[in-house]
Design goal:
The chain has 214 residues and is of the alpha/beta class. It has one domain: HUPs (Rossmann fold), CATH 3.40.50.620. It contains eight helices and eight strands. α2 packs antiparallel against α8. The relative contact order is 0.18.
């Protein structure tokens, strides 16, 4: 089984998240995508961060009617910051060798990977799918970044996949541009504006019922 791993703060999850992962699942031949909220994101401020359990509930509700999507609380069960290398290792331990994992990242997160814990080991642990949302960074820019900050020896194959003799492939996937962000949604709520159409109905109802982000 080929499974995508899609983690994030999801504060809150919105229709941009959902639309993009549906596209990636269909175009990258993934059998399933596992979404997992971060408990303590090491690279993000915790200002106006909904509780981990509330964010988990919103993610579950957002995808409950979609086929081929799962939600995991794997990072909520660990103590301390949520480091990607630890999460990958834990997923592999739980699922075993029959599951081939692929890490899904937005392009901003991908370009930040050199600052991550044990970054080199991540590229030696799983293939990566970089979701490029409309900015269309050229392959030459990716090649230069990969060579300088990740590892020497990656070569471009089939126009959008970088391959390496000792590390896993990095695939650049151009996904639909959906101009929605969690920050935008939180700001609209603070200003008393509607978020209808920006988040799944379940999430909109959950936020209103719980009185989040006020």
């Amino acid at each position: 089984m080929d499974a995508g791993l899609f983690g994030g703060t999801f504060n809150p999850i919105h229709n941009g998240h959902v639309g993009v992962i549906q596209y990636v699942k269909a175009h990258c031949a993934l059998d399933t995508i596992i979404l997992y909220p971060s408990a303590l994101p090491p690279h993000k401020s915790n200002v106006n961060l909904a509780s981990a359990q509330d964010r988990l509930s919103m993610v579950k509700g957002a995808v409950k009617h979609l086929n081929g999507f799962q939600v995991s609380d794997i990072e909520l069960q660990r103590q301390g910051p949520s480091f990607t290398i630890d999460t990958i290792s834990q997923f592999k331990s739980v699922f075993g060798n029959d599951t081939r994992f692929h890490l899904l990242l937005g392009s901003d997160a991908f370009f930040d990977t050199p600052s991550w814990k044990q970054a080199r080991q991540i590229f030696g642990a799983v293939p990566m799918i970089v979701m490029q949302r409309g900015e269309r960074t050229g392959m030459a820019s990716y090649a230069s970044f990969i060579d300088e900050h990740i590892a020497k020896g990656y070569k471009l194959k089939n126009d959008n996949i970088f391959v390496h003799d000792g590390l896993f492939p990095i695939r650049i996937c151009n996904v639909p541009r959906i101009d929605i962000s969690s920050t935008q949604i939180r700001n609209r709520i603070k200003s008393g504006k509607s978020i209808s159409g920006l988040v799944p109905e379940y999430v909109e109802t959950f936020i209103r019922t719980k009185d989040l982000y006020k």
